[in-house]
Prior knowledge:
It contains 6 helices and 9 strands, in the order βαβαβαβαβαββαββ. With 207 residues, it is an alpha/beta fold. It has one domain: Rossmann fold, CATH 3.40.50. β2 (30-37), α2 (43-50) and β3 (55-57) form a beta-alpha-beta unit.
Amino acid sequence: MLRLAVLVSGGGTNLQAILDRIADGTIREAQVVRVISNSDRAFALERARKAGIEAVCVTRKQHPVPEEFNAALKEAIDACRPDLVVLAGCLVVIPQIIVDAYPNRIINIHPALIPSFCGTGYYGLKVHEAALARGVRVTGATVHFVDGGTDTGPILLQKAVEIHQDDTPEILQRRVMEEAEWKLLPEAISLIAQGRVTVEDGRVRIK
Ligand code: GRF
């Protein structure tokens, strides 16, 4: 059984998608053992509590010194002995000490088709504002392994989503979540739990 630590920052709809797929048996070989939030106001914490899952907060208010925050975040992850760390709407740039401790064992969902509209400054609605401003016809979502950079690790899954003529950033964000994010992240977890995913020379292979 793959032990999952899920890191969140906000509404937790991606966490909810994972919990729902575990509940309906789509994901059979994994369990969420802890939810960790960098915000004590994240509704994702409520979703965890409703599901009976331990939810903890590690905030910069508690740990204003960056190195102490990083150590506390690593401690919160280590304590639940995860096999896989899942960044689900997590706005924290994962510090190198955690990336080093969990090589190819951290995945992230990004709401665009990497390498488009990603990297520093591209998160949440900003991603969709940039896609609309550029006038692309399709966008989507990407699940990738987390390395030392921002949205730069090996790509595991991607799914394209059409942009409609009158989309606003909010409408587009919702469509990308519904049609891509909420499908890709559970699918990625299931593939990893089945032992079907390897990373070779920076490229992902799915058996
Ligand atoms: C959304 O912008 C989503 O596209 C991105 O993170 C944000 C919040 O997601 N992945 P969630 O509802 O907290 O999972």
